[in-house]
Specification:
44% helix, Rossmann fold, 18% strand, 2 domains
Length: 331
């Protein structure tokens, strides 16, 4: 009997020491916050952007895998998948939603929750879209960065005109399912009229429609192409560049990524820096800031990039004045 009591006391002491062990202590620590990162893009073309987002988090003292976790969700250019993606993140009770990759993501997130903080990266006016009340005081649970890509179509059109001043018409590739498509068409139409040009519109919202649009451009003997700013086109960037090369069609795009990968020209913002800023805002929110009090950010730097290899492959003569305006020349 005394032996049984002794064993029982030893067992209780063992339990007590186990309760103070590092393993149990770790189990009692609060769970780290989880960020829901949802994008219209695909992971294959976004590694430089997710790295920039993590860099922004680290500026706020948050390290992925240490004191914060990120759940990545990708729509791969299919806007119809966004509702299910954000519904899953809301169900998982993430601490913040980073809704990047354009207007469709931000709108889906805003529609899904009015309580979880949302940080967006979009290319249109968030006030007009109904995402926020104002730039200085967004109000509600949403804030982010307007990267202005959709308002720069006239600038890109002007650059194409400077490259090919004798061209009287230019093809414009637009995704009709993109929320900003109507505004893009209106802006390009006005800009073309102002410089005595005409834009012929070609529409595509699937990969097969992109192929068909290029074939139609060739039949119409279009001298040049402007690819409208759109996350769907970003996902199909390599195909767009390959088709422009195959059909020897001079084209301008919205992001430096295109020119680096072989596109002729690009004019737009520093997209990785916008993702870094989104990471900074996400970190601030996780540390107690309210989205309602974080003003909408806008870029101040724009990049005009020319790929000289593609210039030579297309047999083009770039005016020296246009070449001098380039922020970067890829040789």
């Amino acid at each position: 009997m005394q032996f049984d009591q002794l064993k029982r006391r030893q067992f209780i002491r063992l339990l007590g020491s186990a309760a103070g062990s590092p393993l149990v202590a770790r189990a009692q620590q609060p769970a780290i916050p989880v960020i829901g990162f949802m994008s219209t893009r695909s992971p294959e073309v976004s590694s430089h952007l997710t790295e920039a987002f993590r860099r922004g988090l680290s500026e706020g003292g948050l390290i992925d895998g240490q004191n914060v976790a990120i759940e990545f969700r990708w729509a791969d250019g299919d806007y119809g998948r966004l509702s299910a993606i954000v519904a899953d993140l809301v169900t998982r009770k993430v601490a913040v939603i980073a809704a990047v990759g354009g207007e469709p993501t931000a709108k889906a997130a805003k529609q899904a929750t009015s309580t979880i903080p949302i940080v967006f990266v979009i290319g249109s006016d968030p006030v007009t879209l109904g995402l926020v009340g104002s730039y200085n005081r967004p109000g509600g649970n949403v804030t982010g960065i307007n990267i202005l890509t959709n308002s720069m179509e006239p600038k890109r059109l002007g650059i194409l005109h400077d490259l090919l001043p004798q061209a009287s018409r230019i093809a414009a590739l637009v995704n009709p399912k993109f929320p900003a498509a109507a505004t893009q068409l209106k802006d390009m139409g006005r800009a073309a009229q102002a410089i005595g040009m005409e834009t012929e519109i070609f529409r595509a919202s699937t990969e097969s429609e992109i192929d068909a649009a290029f074939q139609s451009m060739v039949r119409r003997q279009m001298p040049a192409l402007i690819v409208a700013a759109d996350p769907f086109f970003n996902t199909h960037r390599s195909n767009l560049i390959a088709l422009a090369a195959r059909y020897r069609l001079p084209a301008i795009y919205q992001l430096r990524e295109y020119a680096v990968d072989g596109g002729l020209m690009s004019y737009g913002i520093d997209l990785p820096d916008a993702y870094r800023q989104a990471g900074v805002y996400t970190a601030r929110i996780l540390k107690g800031a309210k989205p309602a009090d974080l003003p909408i950010l806008q870029p101040t730097k724009f990049e005009f990039v020319i790929n000289l290899k593609t210039v030579k492959a297309l047999g083009l003569d770039v005016p020296p004045t246009l070449l001098a305006r380039a922020d970067e020349v890829i040789e």
